Structure formats: structure tokens, C-alpha cells
């Protein structure tokens, strides 16, 4: 094999998405390999450093151990072919539909519990199951307006679901900025591939939020509620508000009057109909949750119950993020949709089950243990990498609160070439596709956020643990962009029947329109 990946190492038990175990470059990466070889390693490295500097200048940052750092974007894109993506897209949409039905049920009739598919205590003991949200009916029946379903590829290259995020999934801002950065940094490479654009996300999100407005509101006021500029995801909050053309507000900007939410403006109070909130449940409404919170708006939950405002995502969605509930999602899909799961789970032991717990306790040094309400990689213990003292402490913790833990085998996440000090080396990745539900269709953003663990052998990819990201390229067709000769102008003869153009679906923009939308979004992102 020749090209940029000539000396690239692979491991038989780990699926590398770029280079096969026999040393051949996989389809979709051949042209990248050739072009990187033409650039030379130093040129590729310099381009990567340029991206890092530009992110620092633009304020594209994240919080790492209390310090704001530029979000690392690796110069090597992750490529997913059209057929593979079609499978992922269908699986993500199926999962979101099932979770929608599940949330509507457990905050209503609870039929799934009556039918003994899930034990009642599994739902009611979740720290994210909020009784104050019971029987609140969203405007168009949607509770999961935005979701981020985390996926990994196992040793065979098959996609599996690692966890669900239907509370306040974050990271889509990096998808938008990553694409812009790669387009300006590797224009020669981007220009030779047919890559599905990501620029439609803000308009899709706005359309879904407007569709969720209370009944009878024809021109809803949509706002983005942020905890404020000190929040680690504030860059994303402000970017999305700007791209959607919505006001970015804090809790102090909102007030409830007569069961309605109003926004303070220079022209007085103005009604708010949809709140895309980026504030956790516990801090959203000091009347219903923490009474010391200054991040939310007192009485907003009562306004939602009265049907005067829609909160997106809905309060109480976190019960579906509970990692113990995750183990039941295949059954949830079968129960509500009557279908087999398209994307399988990772094998999971429920430690509240005495039989499972006994097996896991004997194999702590072989497995991964996760707290059921953890996020950002916090609290995860990887048995083979843990010390004896850590395992002994873990055994005591699990024994004291088995409901709070699950166990899974150590899955060797797939790898993609990543620029490090030694050159291009394999690093583990996951994928967070973002899906938007407007009440009629679940639309999955082509690609999503690929997170990469930058340390050699590291399996936790979260930015809070020092991970970075990659631009995710979903290819259209065979992925190659070829030169198209201009059409010759045809003479129109008088008397011929008029040509009738087929109506283009608003939900599926043509590639040319998507490219133009991408350019407009790039300009907006650059000005943020």
C-alpha cells in the first residue's frame, strides 16, 4: 500500500475504519490517502495547527478541569458511506420514535408497566423521573424535540448504541463549526468528495420548535434559554440562537403572569410560546424544583401544564437517559413499534438483579461499570485499567446502591487515523448523531459529532476527559465529485406543451440548495 497511511498500525481485534488488517485503505478513504500523501506530513500537521489556532480566536472552546480550552478538531475526517449511513439513520429514527412513545406513556397511562414490560420501580426510582411533569401534554405531542444517540462500532465494524441523550444533548455547534473549518483548511479534499451538508440543522430545529407551539399560535415566539456565559456550552447556545434568529435569554429575562411566560424587552413584556431550554430540570423552575435556583423562571412548569408554553426538550425526559432504562430500550422498541431494533445495544448487566450482580462482582477487573445517571464520562470505571484499591472501593459502592450501576464488557471502540506527535496513529472514536422530531418526521442530521480519545489506548472520548472531535463526512452516492459539463441551451419551439417542473419536497432540499445553505451558515458561524 502507498499513501499517507503506509506505516499506519492496525490491531486485528479492533476495527479501524480507514485501514483494513491487510493494510488496504477502505472505500471512501482512498482519495484522502492520496491527497494527504501529496501534501506531505508536515503540511497536514500545519493545517491541523491552523485549525486549532482559528478555534481559539473564534472562542470555540470547552471546559476542561475548570479551564476553557479550544475544542480540539483533528485534521483527518471520519468518512461514512451512503449505505452504512442509511442503516444508522433508520436505527436512530426508530429509537427516537420508541422513546417518544415511552415518555408519553410513563407520564400518562403507564400501560407499559401494567403490561409488565418494565417493572414499576425501575421507572419511579430513577432520579430523573419527575412526578411534577406527570400528565403535561406538549403542544404537538413531542417531548424529544432534539436527541443525541451515542453510537460506537464494535470489533466487527457494526454500529451499536452506547447511550441515549434526550434531556439536553449538546455538541451540535461543533458539527457546524467543524465543517466550516475543514472546508477552509482542506478545500482540495472537500472539493473532490460529495459530502452531505449539515447546514440545514438550525432551520430544521427552528421549524420543529415552531411546530411545537401551543394550539392557536400562528406566529410563535421562540427563545433559547441559557444558564449564562459561564456555562461550558454557552458558545453553542449563542450560536444556535443566532443561526435560528431567536432571542438568547437567561432566567432573569423571563417572568410568568397569569399562567403565561413573558419576556422582558425594551418595549415591555412580550409573550413567549416556545422555550428551547439549555438549563437542567433541577434549575428550570424554582417553584417545582430547587428553590435556590436563579437560572430558571418561577412558574414556567405551571405555564406548560396550562398549555400556554412549550418547553423543549420536555421536563422529565431524563428517565429515558437512565442507563438502567437503556438496557430495556430493545424491549421498548418491540412493545411500542412492533419491530426488532435496527441498532443493537451493548451487552449490559443490571446490577440491581442479584444474579447479574454476583457475576459482575466476580469479574470487576474485566468489565466497565457505569453510574446510571452519570454523564460526560464521569464515574466510569474501566476494570482492566483500575487499581486493586479502586476495584475494592467500587465493590463497596455497588453493594450499597446496586440500582445506581450497570456493567458492560470492554468494547474496543473503532479507530480512525488521528494526527498526534508521532504522525497519523489510530485513536478510538464514537459518534453522536443528532435527530430532530417535528411531530411528523424524525430527521437525522447527516453525520453528527465524532468524538475522539486523543490518548493512546484511551477509551473515554468525552471532551471533559480531554477528548477532541472530527468532522464526520456522510458521502452521497459513491462519494466522488466529478466534473459536470454545462448543458447546452435548448431552443423552445412555439406551440409545444409547457414543461412542468416536479415539486421539490421542502423537507429534502436538493444538493445545490443545501450547498448554498451551507455557505450562508458558514458566513453566520464566521461572524459569531
Automatic annotation (TrEMBL):
Biased composition, class Basic and acidic residues, residue ranges: 478-488
Record-linked InterPro entries: ATP-dep_Glu-Cys_Ligase-2, CP_ATPgrasp_2, UCP005522
Region (Disordered): 463-528
Domain of life per record: Bacteria
Pfam families linked: CP_ATPgrasp_2
Residue span(s) of domain Circularly permuted ATP-grasp type: 77-453
Protein name (Swiss-Prot/TrEMBL): UDP-N-acetylmuramate dehydrogenase
Amino acid at each position: 500500500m502507498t499513501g499517507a497511511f503506509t506505516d499506519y498500525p492496525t490491531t486485528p481485534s479492533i476495527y479501524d475504519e480507514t485501514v483494513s488488517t491487510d493494510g488496504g485503505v477502505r472505500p471512501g478513504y482512498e482519495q484522502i490517502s492520496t491527497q494527504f500523501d501529496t501534501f506531505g506530513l508536515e503540511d497536514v500537521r500545519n493545517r491541523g495547527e491552523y485549525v486549532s489556532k482559528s478555534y481559539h480566536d473564534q472562542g470555540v472552546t470547552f471546559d476542561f478541569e475548570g479551564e476553557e480550552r479550544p475544542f480540539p478538531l483533528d485534521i483527518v475526517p471520519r468518512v461514512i458511506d451512503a449505505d452504512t449511513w442509511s442503516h444508522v439513520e433508520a436505527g436512530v429514527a426508530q429509537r427516537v420514535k420508541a422513546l417518544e412513545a415511552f415518555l408519553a406513556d410513563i407520564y400518562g397511562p403507564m400501560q407499559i408497566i401494567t403490561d409488565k414490560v418494565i417493572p414499576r420501580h425501575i421507572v419511579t426510582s430513577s432520579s430523573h423521573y419527575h412526578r411534577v411533569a406527570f400528565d403535561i401534554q406538549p403542544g404537538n405531542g413531542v417531548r424529544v424535540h432534539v436527541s443525541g444517540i451515542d453510537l460506537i462500532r464494535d470489533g466487527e465494524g457494526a454500529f451499536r448504541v452506547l447511550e441515549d441523550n434526550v434531556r439536553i444533548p449538546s455538541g451540535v455547534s461543533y458539527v457546524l463549526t467543524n465543517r466550516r473549518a475543514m472546508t477552509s483548511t482542506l478545500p482540495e479534499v472537500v472539493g473532490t468528495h460529495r459530502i452531505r451538508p449539515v447546514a440545514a440543522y438550525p432551520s430544521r430545529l427552528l421549524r420543529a420548535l415552531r411546530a411545537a407551539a401551543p394550539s392557536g399560535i400562528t406566529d410563535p415566539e421562540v427563545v433559547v434559554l441559557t444558564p449564562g456565559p459561564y456555562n461550558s456550552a454557552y458558545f453553542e447556545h449563542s450560536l444556535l440562537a443566532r443561526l435560528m434568529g431567536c432571542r438568547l435569554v437567561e432566567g432573569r429575562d423571563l417572568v410568568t403572569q397569569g399562567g403565561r411566560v413573558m419576556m422582558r424587552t425594551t418595549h415591555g413584556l412580550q409573550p413567549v410560546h416556545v422555550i428551547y431550554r439549555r438549563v437542567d430540570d433541577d434549575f428550570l423552575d424554582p417553584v417545582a424544583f430547587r428553590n435556590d435556583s436563579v437560572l430558571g423562571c418561577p412558574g414556567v412548569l405551571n405555564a406548560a401544564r396550562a398549555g400556554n408554553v412549550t418547553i423543549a426538550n420536555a421536563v422529565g425526559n431524563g428517565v429515558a437517559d437512565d442507563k438502567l432504562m437503556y438496557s430495556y430500550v430493545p424491549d421498548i422498541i418491540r412493545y411500542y413499534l412492533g419491530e426488532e431494533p435496527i441498532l443493537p445495544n451493548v451487552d449490559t448487566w443490571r446490577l440491581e438483579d442479584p444474579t447479574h450482580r454476583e457475576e459482575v462482582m466476580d469479574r470487576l477487573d474485566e468489565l466497565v461499570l457505569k453510574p446510571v445517571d452519570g454523564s460526560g464520562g464521569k464515574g466510569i470505571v474501566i476494570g482492566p485499567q483500575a487499581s486493586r484499591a479502586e476495584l475494592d472501593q467500587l465493590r463497596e459502592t455497588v453493594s450499597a446502591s446496586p440500582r445506581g450501576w450497570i456493567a458492560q464488557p470492554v468494547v474496543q471502540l473503532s479507530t480512525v487515523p488521528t494526527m498526534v506527535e508521532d504522525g497519523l496513529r489510530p485513536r478510538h472514536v464514537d459518534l453522536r448523531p443528532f435527530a430532530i422530531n417535528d411531530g411528523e418526521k424524525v430527521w437525522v442530521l447527516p453525520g453528527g459529532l465524532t468524538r475522539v480519545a486523543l490518548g493512546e489506548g484511551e477509551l473515554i472520548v468525552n471532551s471533559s476527559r480531554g477528548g477532541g472531535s472530527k468532522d464526520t463526512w456522510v458521502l452521497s452516492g459513491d462519494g466522488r465529485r466529478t466534473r459536470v459539463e454545462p448543458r447546452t441551451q435548448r431552443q423552445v419551439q412555439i406551440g409545444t406543451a409547457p414543461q412542468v417542473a416536479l415539486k421539490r419536497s421542502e423537507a429534502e432540499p436538493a444538493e445545490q440548495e443545501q450547498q448554498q445553505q451551507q455557505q450562508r451558515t458558514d458566513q453566520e458561524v464566521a461572524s459569531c
